[in-house]
Design goal:
alpha/beta; 8-stranded parallel beta barrel; 11 helices
Length: 313
C-alpha cells in the first residue's frame, strides 16, 4: 500500500515546506485538493491549467523529493441547485483537465447532494423514510438528478483519461454507504468506486472493517482518518451533531489523530482486512484533528500508519 498525504492537513505551510515535511516523514505520494470545499493551499488551479512553466515547476518540486501525485481532489457539492453548485462544477471540470495534463488517473470527490425538488435552491439530504414525502424526494433526487449527472460525468472523465473516480462516503451526500455506492455503480458503471474514509462510518454507527468485506473491489482509494465518540456527549445526545468542528470540547464526536479514537490494534486489523480483500492502493492520511498542532497530528498518525500497514518501511 502506498503511503500518501492529503496536503490540506498542512495547509498553513507553503508547498515546498509542506513537501519537505512529508518527505522527511516517509510519505511517497500526495493528494492535492484543487478547490471547492478546500482552499487549495498548494495548487493554483487556473495557473497550472494555463501555464506550462508553472506545471513543470510543480512536478519538479515533487520529483526532487521522490513524491508522486496519487490523486487530485475536488470535493464539493456540484449538485447544489444554486450558484455554489455551478461554481463547484466548474472546479470539477478544471480538475479533470488538469489531471489529464499531469497524467493523474484518479480523482477523489463527493457524489453531491441536490435539492429536494426542481425549484429548490438549497441541498436537501434525506436520511430517513418518514414522513412519507421523504421517500418521494429521495427517488426524485436519484432518478432525475444524481444518476443523469454521473452518467455525463463518467463520460467526461473517460475523455480526460481518468480511470477511477473515488467518491467519499461522507454524510450529507447521496453516496455515504456501501449500499448507496452500489446503487450508483449499478446505474452508471464501475468507473465509480469508493474513497473509503472509515471515520465517517465510525460516527454514523457502522463497522468499517465489516464494510471492507462487503465493498471489496469497489474500494478505489482510502483516507486514513479516525473518530472518537466523546463520553458524556455522544451517550447523552447521540451522534447527530450540528456543532461546528472547532467546538470540539462540546461535540458528540470528533475527528482525531490516528490512534486517538481507535488504537493501533484496530488499525492493524483494518489494513490487514483491506489487504486480504485485494486492496493494494493508496492510503492517504487526512488530518482534521483540531485538538493539537498539525505537526503533532502528523507525527502521531504516521507512527500508527507505519506500524499498522502490512508492509515494510
Amino acid at each position: 500500500m502506498q503511503l500518501c498525504f492529503n496536503t490540506d492537513g498542512l495547509g498553513g505551510y507553503p508547498r515546498d515546506e509542506m513537501l519537505d515535511i512529508i518527505a522527511a516523514n516517509g510519505y511517497e505520494a500526495a493528494e492535492f485538493a484543487c478547490g471547492n470545499w478546500s482552499q487549495a493551499p498548494h495548487i493554483d488551479l487556473d495557473c497550472l491549467l494555463d501555464d506550462k512553466k508553472a506545471r513543470s515547476a510543480f512536478t519538479d518540486s515533487l520529483e526532487k523529493r521522490n513524491i508522486t501525485i496519487a490523486a487530485l481532489n475536488c470535493s464539493g457539492n456540484q449538485l447544489a441547485p444554486n450558484d455554489e453548485g455551478r461554481a463547484h462544477q466548474a472546479v470539477v471540470e478544471k480538475t479533470f483537465r488538469l489531471a489529464e495534463m499531469l497524467g493523474v488517473t484518479t480523482i477523489v470527490m463527493m457524489s453531491g447532494c441536490p435539492g429536494g425538488a426542481p425549484d429548490d435552491t438549497t441541498p436537501n439530504w434525506i436520511c430517513a423514510s418518514w414522513p412519507p414525502i421523504t421517500t418521494q424526494i429521495l427517488e426524485w433526487q436519484w432518478n432525475e438528478v444524481l444518476i443523469p449527472y454521473w452518467h455525463k460525468t463518467v463520460e467526461l472523465a473517460k475523455r480526460h483519461g481518468i480511470q477511477k473516480i473515488a467518491l467519499e462516503n461522507h454524510g450529507c451526500q447521496m453516496v455515504y454507504s456501501a449500499e448507496t455506492l452500489f446503487r450508483l455503480r449499478d446505474a452508471v458503471g464501475d468507473h465509480i468506486g469508493l474513497n473509503f474514509d472509515p471515520s465517517h462510518l465510525m460516527w454514523m454507527g457502522g463497522d468499517p472493517i465489516r464494510a471492507i468485506r462487503t465493498l471489496g473491489k469497489a474500494i478505489y482509494y482510502v483516507h486514513a482518518k479516525d473518530v472518537r465518540l466523546e463520553r458524556g456527549a455522544c451517550d447523552v445526545n447521540g451522534v447527530l451533531d450540528t456543532k461546528t468542528i472547532d467546538r470540539f470540547a462540546d461535540r458528540a464526536w470528533n475527528f482525531v489523530a490516528l490512534g486517538h479514537g481507535h488504537d493501533v490494534m484496530w488499525w492493524k486489523e483494518f489494513f490487514s482486512v483491506l489487504s486480504m480483500c485485494g486492496y493494494d492502493g493508496t492510503v492517504s492520511l487526512e488530518m482534521e484533528d483540531l485538538t493539537m498542532d498539525p505537526l503533532a497530528v502528523l507525527q502521531k498518525s504516521t507512527q500508527v500508519l507505519k506500524e499498522a500497514l502490512p508492509r515494510a518501511f
